[in-house]
Amino acid sequence: MLTGFGISVARTIVGTIGSVLVTSILAYGMTKRELIGRKYYMIMCIITMYFAGGLIPSFMLIRGLGLMDSFWVYIIPGLVSVWNMIIFRTFFQGLPNGLEESAKIDGAGNWGIFFKIILPLSGPVIATLSLFTAVSHWNEWFLPSIYINKEELLPIQTILRQILNSNIMSEQMANLDPASQAVLSKMQSVTTKSLSMATMIVATVPIIMVYPFVQKHFVKGVLVGSLKE
Asked: What is the pLDDT of residues 42-100, one digit of tens each?
């Protein structure tokens, strides 16, 4: 259980940082008018929001990349979020063009402008999308049950889900036999309801702990990242 908790924490931290960084870089590139084929790339990205590859092709791709039973299966497939990219792109387009022009006159390159000017000014939208991404990583339980066979790599959510399903199956089997139900009620130390409550606590407590640190940026990030002046 402690190992699963550590995997969930590591996955959430690494996955959130990686996703926000890669997605913001992609969004910054999409704001450049001189980018050849920018509209084509944008259309291709948006198409992926409406037409997913499907579970079986995704499984074959993950297996072909050698990510099965690997910690990186939690990180690499989710490095780019098209929805977050659109929000980043809209926010970047709302920044004054004079900032980049002044930096270029001073000799700054694209990478320097992005990391030293654009990102520091993007605190609200970064905080907002980081929270969304972290919650998504923390609450994910389905994909690990498909791609991970090693118990030591399973996150806490998947472990709790397995325990809950096992408990439900035991209760259903006991309901078929009254004698077995009596024995199970005496032996069972953890009920299905208590497991459900534990799952809810595990899912919500980390969010409650993190939210106060990003609260001042949250509302502003949602509004600024979705509007363009």
From this structure: 999 999 888 877 888 999 999 999 999 999 999 999 999 999 999 999 989 988 888 88
Structure tokens at 83: 């929805």
Nearest to 72 by CA among 16, 143, 20, 11: 11
Q: Where are the alpha helices (DSSP H) in 94-140?
A: 97-105, 110-113, 123-139
Q: For residues 93 and 194, is the Cβ–Cβ distance under 8 A?
A: no
User: Where does the pLDDT of residue 20 fall: very low under 50, low under 70, confident under 90, or very high at 90 and above?
Assistant: very high
Please state the pTM of the whole predicted model.
0.81
User: Do 223 and 184 meet the contact criterion of CB atoms below 8 Å apart?
Assistant: no
As for how many domains the chain has, the answer is: 1
Given a contact cutoff of 8 angstroms between Cβ atoms, the answer to whether 27 and 41 are in contact is no
Q: Which domain holds residue 41?
A: 2-224
